[in-house]
Amino acid sequence: MEPAHQGSGVEQGWGSDVHSSDLLADAFDRIRQSVRQAVQDLTPRQLAVRLDDDANSIAWLVWHLTRVQDDHVADVAGTEQVWLTGGWHERFALPFEPGAHGYGHTSAQVAAVQVSGDLLIDYHEAVCAQTLAYVRDVTDDDLSRVVDESWDPPVTLAVRLVSVLSDDLQHVGQAAFIRGVIERR
């Protein structure tokens, strides 16, 4: 299996012309590649495997990380969520409210995410495309813009995007770990 970062801009030596937008786009594209590697060629049953009764499945982890990215990036970009505008809520047919993204989900709600790998990958690809379209236009000056005043200190665009990246990286890593366990069984 190829490493998730194969052929990214950083390895290609961007040199002194690199901008924050390049780094953000590279980071989100690496997550996209890692999602594909974690999900590709697994059956819906394998995607739903839980290592214990309360553990998250690959399907839930990838759905959740994609929903968070979709929700948070759409919010800072001032756009609609792909989940809602692209018909993904209907295609997934999950027993959740349209705005659900997995925070606070119970074990039963995690178990309810039973979907195909193609559906997960396609939704993530659509979200990533919207994310990349946004972050490629982010300037260094944009990063200090306050996007959420409900926190103390208020959250800037830079902090929000790094938070999304951190959440996505943790969850795709968990999904890859579960895939490894499944493949060794």
Could you explain the architecture of this structure?
A hairpin with a 6-residue loop joins β1 and β2. α1 runs antiparallel to α7, α3 packs parallel to α7 and α3 packs antiparallel against α8. The chain has 185 residues and is mostly helical. It starts with 19 loop residues before the first helix and ends with a helix. It has a single domain, classed as Four Helix Bundle (Hemerythrin (Met), subunit A), CATH 1.20.120. It is globular and about 50 Å long. It contains eight helices and two strands. The longest helix is centred in the C-terminal third of the chain and has 28 residues. The N terminus is likely disordered.
Largest sheet report: 2 strands, antiparallel
Question: For this structure, what is the CATH class?
Answer: Mainly Alpha
Q: Give the SSE string.
A: HHHHHHHEEH
Strand sequence of the main sheet, in spatial order? 1-2
The number of helices is 8
Q: What's the rounded overall pLDDT mean?
A: 93
Number of strands: 2
Q: Name the CATH homologous superfamily.
A: dinb family like domain
Question: What attributes does this structure have?
Answer:
185 residues, mainly alpha, Four Helix Bundle (Hemerythrin (Met), subunit A), two-stranded antiparallel ribbon, 8 helices, 2 strands, globular
Strand and helix layout:
Blueprint: H1 20-39, H2 44-47, H3 58-77, H4 82-85, H5 88-92, H6 107-111, H7 117-135, E1 146-148, E2 155-156, H8 157-184
Helix pairs in contact: 1-7, 1-8, 3-7, 3-8
